[in-house]
From TrEMBL:
HAMAP family (UniProt xref): UbiB
Pathway involvement of the protein, from the record: Cofactor biosynthesis; ubiquinone biosynthesis [regulation]
GO biological process, one term: ubiquinone biosynthetic process
Name of the coding gene: ubiB
Role, per record: Is probably a protein kinase regulator of UbiI activity which is involved in aerobic coenzyme Q (ubiquinone) biosynthesis.
The protein, known as: Probable protein kinase UbiB
ABC1 atypical kinase-like domain boundaries: 90-343
Listed GO CC annotations: plasma membrane
Key words of the record: ATP-binding, Cell inner membrane, Cell membrane, Kinase, Membrane, Nucleotide-binding, Transferase, Transmembrane, Transmembrane helix, Ubiquinone, Ubiquinone biosynthesis
InterPro entries according to UniProt: ABC1_dom, Kinase-like_dom_sf, UbiB, UbiB_bact, UbiB_kinase
Species assigned in the record: Pseudoalteromonas piratica
Amino acid sequence: MHFTRAYKIVKTFLNFGLDELIPSHLFPWYGRLMRACFFWLGNKHKDKNAGQRLRLALESLGPVWVKFGQMLSTRRDLLPPDIAKELSLLQDNVAPFDGEKAQQLIEQALQLDDIHQLFEEFDNKPLASASIAQVHTAKLKHHDALHQVVIKVIRPDIENAIYADLKLMAQLAKLVSQFLPDGKRLRPVEVINEYRKTLLDELDLQREGANAIQLKRNFENSESLYIPYVYSDYSRKNVLVMERIYGIPVSDIAALEEQNTNLELLAERGVEVFFTQVFRDSFFHADMHPGNIFVSREHPENPMYIGIDCGIVGTLNKEDKRYLAENFIAFFNRDYRKVAELHVDSGWVPADTNVEEFEFAIRTVCEPIFQKPLAEISFGQVLVNLFNTARRFNMEVQPQLVLLQKTLLYVEGLGRQLYPQLDLWKTAKPFLEDWVKQQIGPKAVFSQLKENLPFWGEKLPEMPDLLYKALKQNTNKSANVTIQQSNRGIVWAIFAMTFTLTGTVFFVTEFIMPSIALFSTATICAWRALRHSSNHQV
Ligand SMILES: Nc1ncnc2c1ncn2[C@@H]1O[C@H](COP(=O)(O)OP(=O)(O)OP(=O)(O)O)[C@@H](O)[C@H]1O
């Protein structure tokens, strides 16, 4: 199986002339020798351009490769634009699998003798069928009521096929990175590893269910986004039962216009939902292609999105978020020095990077973007340009940022399709500026203290003990005046710390007057500590 599949892949690549995509000066002699060994396989599609040949080759290799091509199409940082555009046309035309088989899989997963024990009107005919899973409609008997649901079922036997293809892909990536002189720059091994992770995550519907539950909780009372309810009691690794939704696909602009949807508000809400997910929740839906987004039929004047398929989500840590927000703000202020410094501070590029050179490189690629009116600038493209430049300065690939950049491109595309005059910057700027403000300044310091309160609350009872030990040590060593002096300094410092902590506890629990008294005492202790330490140094 392994060998025949490997041969099929080589045959497809050569029949679509993909070897011709490698520039001759980059094709080493051993590569050409290997190519010559398959002399009977030649390019049968000479009439088509490179992008088309690559797309057709991937389509003929099946779903794992199609999904890989779709992922690559969003990596504008790695591929030339014409090839990326062609890959974005990839379609996974897979036939649905037998509905009886789906029913059998559901019965097995939920340990039912008969599907009708739990579901009424299970429809054998799939509602939708994709490369990894198929969706059926049913009515769930739940708490003495009937609930309209959809059941997503992973295709039978897909797992083994995916593992086998991923293994071959990984071997191919290794070959490319080892034997093609320019292979490493494309980071094929990392790209395949990232793809592997995404694809395997998609095979686990319990994970998708958990993501949907989290996202639903994050947008509990939101007017902008609704996530269908997941029946976790009836969900397994290969079966997911969730509330059926009846929204309008977001790409169906005619239907949205027909019900007088406020498209401007809808487009703005897309941007708002995205930035809320990224900056408020650090948890974003990262598969926002139009097939996964619907619009509620209710209240078209106050339109709400409905999101499905939460199989791929992204998360960002606090530092990433802060640098990202500041990067956008600095970029739109055309402060390229700041952009360069942020990349160094965040550790995205090595600490010894020449900031001036980096600033200059960023200016060169970013300044032309401002030729356009601000409203037309693409945030996603800004990130692509920035990351491309940073990569020349040895920026490591940050998978979470790549996911974010990809999602941002989708969100923008979607927003502009709904409302071409959408001014992304106008919608996003106040959001980003508020967020950055919240992260710095006194409010942020206190919220940080509040966050660390449980830790300090735990340590506070130990303070008197520490103090006692320090004092005792001080008495034992009284022979040495210098040490005694320095110990006194330590004792005052401990006092200062204890009063500060207690003051903070009072402050955040809103006992303002006692907290002021404690902070004042802490200041006096700190001053005494400083005096002792300076005497000691003298
Ligand atoms: N809760 C739901 N209510 C109504 N229809 C749904 C629901 N969930 C999924 N569908 C339908 O099933 C289709 C496929 O669902 P989903 O996107 O979750 O599957 P998938 O296998 O992950 O597909 P892909 O990854 O290719 O988008 C959707 O486009 C939608 O038409």
